Amino acid sequence: MRLAQATPLNSEETTTLEVTKIDLPTPPEETIGEQNFLHYVLDKLRQAFVELADEAINKIPDLVVAIVLLMIGFIFAKVIRSVLATVFKRINLDGLLEKVGLTEIFAKMGIKSGPSSFIPKLVYWLIVFLSIRMAADSAGIEDISNVIDQIMAFLPKVLTAAIITLVGFIVADIVRNAVQQSLESLGIEYGSTVAKILFSFLFIIVLTVALSQLGIETELLNSSVKIILSGLAAALALALGLGLKTLAGHIVAGVYARDLYDIGTELHYDGDPAKVAGIGPVTTKLTRNDGSFIIIPNSVLVNEIIRGRREN
């Protein structure tokens, strides 16, 4: 930058003006740009902190109310939990449920604590969730409120699924015990194994229904159960078909034997004389002259050569 300096002359002389140029240093353009950018950044930070402080000051009353609501909710939840635990203990809820067999069923389902313990805990957490939702609404925190609303909306489905599971477990357990006792009374050694397999399939069906109430896709599980049941049915049919082949032959032979032999018909079996005492569905009873008797399959009377004579 240059400045002009004027030099005055005598008045008598011709007036002239001499300009002298003086050079002054000027800051570089890069330095000016950096200073402007720094001022801009500092100004933005100042504005952000001011807005944050204003918002925090405006939110303080809401936060105080939310904290108070949260504390009241926790205290109320603890009081209700203690009251319920005391009442259930005095009325001996566990003992009453044990008499009707529910305690044993809960134990089989993996619920180790008694109803007098987990029901107060369940109520406690429900009150806590409601308190958190009220506090979040008071503080204007919509995300927390939305999450708790979704949880609370899901609870009826959970309750329905739990009831279905409990009732289904009870029914499956009753069926298992009935089948096991029936098979054991018939002298079948593997009755307990058959009863457990039946219980497992019944409980899988109940579990499928319960999961569908929760909105969980059970198509794959249903398909797997159908395939397993179809395979077991085919294996059972094949086993029965092969195992009952001889038995079916005896039954059919009994139909023909009743037409061929009347009660009291004399015949020779194993070289000894005997009489037909009765023809059953599968076997025939023969009595000997000495009063003893023998039981032979019906197919023997039809497939083998039997010498006999009917009573007149």
What attributes characterize this protein structure?
single chain; 312 residues; alpha+beta; Helix Hairpins; 4 domains; five-stranded antiparallel β-sheet; two-stranded antiparallel ribbon; 7 strands; disordered N terminus
Could you please describe the fold and organization of this structure?
By secondary structure, the protein is of the alpha+beta class. It folds into four domains: 42 residues, no CATH class; 104 residues; 80 residues, Orthogonal Bundle (Helix Hairpins); 64 residues, SH3 type barrels (Roll), CATH 2.30.30. It is built from nine helices and seven strands. The strands form two sheets. A five-stranded antiparallel β-sheet has the order 6-5-4-3-7. It has a two-stranded antiparallel sheet with strand order 1-2. The chain starts with a strand and ends with a strand. The N terminus is likely disordered.
Tally of DSSP β-strands: 7
- Order of secondary-structure elements: EEHHHHHHHHEEEEHE
How would you describe the shape? Answer: elongated
Total helical elements: 9
Low-confidence stretches: 1-17
Q: What summary fits the major beta sheet?
A: 5 strands, antiparallel
| Strand arrangement across the biggest beta sheet | 6-5-4-3-7
Q: How big a fraction of the residues is strand?
A: 5-15%
Return the average pLDDT rounded to an integer.
75
Could you give the distance between the termini?
Answer: 158 Å
Radius of gyration: 49 Å
Our count of domains comes out at 4
Helix content: 55-70%
SS-derived structural category: alpha+beta
